[in-house]
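Structure tokens please, single chain.
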Amino acid sequence: MSPTTEMQAVRSLFVPKWSSNVCLEGKTVIITGANTGIGKETAKDLAGRGARVILACRDMTKGEQASRDIMREVKGAKVVARQLDLADTKSICQFSENVYDTERALHYLINNAGHFFLTFLLLDLLKHSAPSRVINVSSAAHAMGKIQFADLNGGKDYHPVRAYAQSKLANVLFTRELARRTEALGVTAYSVDPGMGNTEITRHIRRPLVDIFKTLGMLVKTPAEGAYTTIYCTVTPENQLVTGGYYKDCARAKSCRAGQDDGTALKLWAVSCHLLGIRWR
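Here you go.
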């Protein structure tokens, strides 16, 4: 066996193969952070299944390019790019208003970036379109996270890795609480660990850890492989999934203990509503 073949054999243990021929004709999907990486690959796959895909992108030049790329690679793809800056509540409101003006239904909301306020604004359309799903992209790094209620925004003591891990833990907790509140309404929610991708946590850490990740290159997923679990949670029949659950490698997984703390999830929900000045019905 050649070294290359050996490496591929080892890699296959860490990157399981998965495929599905589920058709999404007539379904509408919104994907945030969709102009690059796993967001773009998710969009490409779902467009290939016949879904109408809205790429929610901060940079419209990159968003329009991603849309053209997908339409060139996927015959008959129904893809459109829309401007959305998740750091700007006004932009989130404008994006959501545009969605209500142009879309009759929303079946899948895939949050690669941001989640709470956007999901809040789009929930009526998700309920109207039920059964529908919200998929929040988290990370294994959530296990290193701790919700710092006294300094949620890191204004007092900011550290990039700590902030990243906290945000990914928040995604897991938000998903659990959202699922609890919306299951009876026909809206299910899942959090996803896409695995270590070459576009992910390396942006938030310094050497020598970056060098270690590069050395373990065979364990790093391509963007297309990183999209597998998101797609799995999109197309797998609802009765084979657990709403509020945490998924990795196209299967149910166990989040860390902090990610299963419903008390913290409820408190984080309340604090988030207070910060945004909103009330979930």
